[in-house]
């Protein structure tokens, strides 16, 4: 072999090795999620909820108990009240609260909320009110009611930032997804464009309906995560010096809706190939858990056995598969809870230790 050909071959081999090394380095820097399949015997808490005490479950919330177990709130309006409250160590002792109505000490049906270790905060965008219940003394009708009056806003969820301010998810000025506002009705900041903010086919109501979703927050820090239904869009952000700052916005697949306006009524209808996408989201100190389904919306199954787990920097770190399909999820420091339906149309509450998940 001639010397010049040898030099060319050696150079080629050196460049190939260098490229391979760089490629390996890049691959090591990428996030790669861990696949985890949970088994029935991984379940640490498994309780069938009495059909006599529990209505149709539309939401699940969890927080650390005072000394034992975890406190659970179910959104299950029946018996003229909205919520069921119990501890996992004594699920037979269920307290009902949140009287349904439009009176001074009542809330409309279907109010979602946010749970802390000591309180449950419900909101109604219909009445523009935020109601706080003290879970230490659940017999009170409510402990505090705040009325808000903001222009150009429609909220799908509100979570307290601190004692004086809130983060709202929904639409603001038909363009933005998140709003920071205070109890004096001052909008202090807003951020993140709606995925369809510049689409002329969507009017103000269509934009609100197509951007419904779920919002959660870090238990102690001013960090938030939010998902949009019928999509694979998830946002992570934090509040720093009264400003909403993006941590990461991952909008891999936006909702696919058709706008309908008929006889003065506005609707959005999922397209035939629309997916169920994100169903629910919750968080603890370390992770954000998002219930997710790739199934088509047309199949009519809005439950899933799949949970995507993210770090608070927005990086996907695990893909969990549950033994059963979950309707809703909730998390505490040490436990991930799910609510699922049994074959005899009752509800099952299951809890998994978070140390098993990652």
* Count of individual beta strands: 27
Rough outline: globular
Average pLDDT taken over every residue: 88
The major pleated sheet works out as:
5 strands, mixed
Over all CA atoms, what is the radius of gyration?
23 Å
Which stretches of 5+ consecutive residues score pLDDT under 50?
Answer: 1-30
Helix content range: under 10%
Order of helices and strands: HEEEEEEEEEEEEEEHEEEEEEEEEEEEE
Count, helices: 2
Across the major sheet, the strand order is 1-24-23-22-21
Distance between the termini: 55 Å
Percent in strands? over 45%
SS-based structural class? Answer: mainly beta
What features would you describe in this structure?
- This protein has 358 residues and is mostly beta strands.
- It is built from 2 helices and 27 strands.
């Amino acid at each position: 072999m001639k010397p010049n050909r040898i030099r060319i071959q050696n150079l080629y081999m050196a460049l190939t090795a260098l490229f391979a090394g760089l490629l390996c380095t890049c691959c090591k820097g990428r996030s790669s999620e861990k696949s985890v399949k949970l088994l029935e015997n991984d379940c640490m808490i498994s309780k069938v909820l009495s059909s006599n005490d529990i209505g149709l479950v539309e939401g699940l919330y969890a927080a650390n108990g005072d000394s034992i177990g975890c406190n659970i709130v179910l959104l299950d309006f029946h018996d003229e009240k909205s919520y069921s409250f119990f501890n996992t160590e004594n699920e037979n002792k269920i307290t009902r609260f949140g009287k349904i109505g439009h009176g001074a000490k009542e809330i409309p049906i279907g109010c979602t909320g946010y749970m802390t270790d000591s309180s449950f905060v419900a909101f109604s965008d219909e009445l523009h009110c935020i109601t706080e219940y003290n879970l230490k003394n659940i017999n009170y009708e409510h402990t505090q009611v705040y009325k808000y009056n903001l222009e150009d806003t429609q909220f799908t969820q509100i979570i307290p930032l601190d004692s004086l301010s809130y983060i709202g998810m929904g639409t603001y000025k038909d363009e933005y997804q998140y709003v920071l506002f205070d109890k004096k009705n001052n909008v202090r900041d807003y951020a993140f464009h709606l995925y369809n903010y510049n689409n002329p086919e969507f009017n103000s109501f269509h934009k609100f309906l197509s951007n419904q979703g779920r919002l959660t927050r870090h238990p102690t820090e001013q960090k938030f995560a939010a998902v949009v239904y019928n999509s694979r869009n998830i946002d992570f952000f934090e509040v720093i010096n009264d400003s909403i700052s993006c941590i990461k916005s991952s909008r891999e697949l936006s909702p696919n809706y058709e706008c309908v306006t008929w006889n003065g009524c506005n609707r959005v209808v999922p397209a035939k190939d629309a997916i169920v996408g994100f169903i629910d989201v919750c968080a603890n100190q370390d992770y954000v858990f998002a219930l997710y389904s790739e199934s088509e919306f047309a199949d009519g199954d809005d439950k899933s056995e799949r949970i995507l787990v993210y770090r608070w920097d927005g990086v996907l770190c695990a893909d969990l598969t549950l033994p059963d399909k979950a309707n809703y999820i909730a998390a505490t420091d040490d436990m991930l809870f799910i609510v699922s339906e049994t074959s005899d149309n009752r509800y099952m509450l299951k809890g998994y230790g978070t140390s098993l998940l990652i």
